[in-house]
Amino acid sequence: MSARDSQVKRMADLLREGATMLSQACPECKTPLFRLSSGEVVCPGCSKRVLFAKPSETSKVAAQAVVASSLEDVLIEKISEIQSALQASRDISEVERYVRVISSLFELLEKVRGSKR
Ligand SMILES: [Zn+2]
Q1: Residue 71 CA to chain centroid, in angstroms?
Q2: How many Å lie between the centroid of ligand 1 and the Cα of residue 77?
Q3: How many angstroms separate the alpha carbon of residue 40 from the centre of ligand 1?
Q4: For 23-81, what is each residue's pLDDT tens digit?
Q5: 27 CA to middle of ligand 1, Å?
Q6: Dihedral-angle region of residue 47 (phi above 0 means left; psi in -120 to 50 means alpha; beta otherwise)
Q7: SS3 for 38-57, per residue?
Q8: Ligand 1 center–CA 66 separation, angstroms
Q9: Considering the entire predicted model, what is its pTM?
């Protein structure tokens, strides 16, 4: 099993456990972050807890999203659409397929964001 496959599996496991995928990606490995039902934010890529420094960090991200390009908006919209379908799905292979698509969309999103710097 490749590293990427096990990462997808971890993401699917997190979703089955009731975690919510966030629109932010891990600053280290660019994997989408997940918020657990306990409120902790984790990265399925590095398997560690991610702490947001201050509540203001989150609002800064939200402010950046407002000025984001339209392509970025479309990608985020797609991700949240697929996320809803994913959360309603009870079929494991379907869940893994959705997670893969979301994972690719996040990669594209990071490229779009990176190209603006
Ligand atoms: Zn990470």
Answers
A1: 17
A2: 22
A3: 14
A4: 888 888 888 889 998 888 888 888 667 765 444 455 555 555 444 457 788 888 888 88
A5: 7
A6: left
A7: CCCEEECCCCEEECCCCHHH
A8: 24
A9: 0.50
| Cα dihedral across residues 3, 4, 9, 12: positive or negative | positive
Distance 33 CA to ligand 1 centre (A): 8
Length in residues, the chain: 117
The answer to whether residues 13 and 86 touch, using CB atoms and an 8 Å cutoff, is: no
Output the CA 21–ligand 1 centroid distance in Å: 13
Structure tokens of 85? Answer: 């379908």
Range of the domain at 23: 3-115
DSSP state letter for 30 = -
Q: Ligand 1 centre and the CA of 84: distance in Å?
A: 23
Contact 7, 45 (CB under 8 A): yes
Q: Strand, coil or helix: what is 31?
A: coil
Q: Is 72 exposed, middle or buried (0-12, 13-18, 19+ CB in 10 A)?
A: middle
Count of domains in the chain? Answer: 1
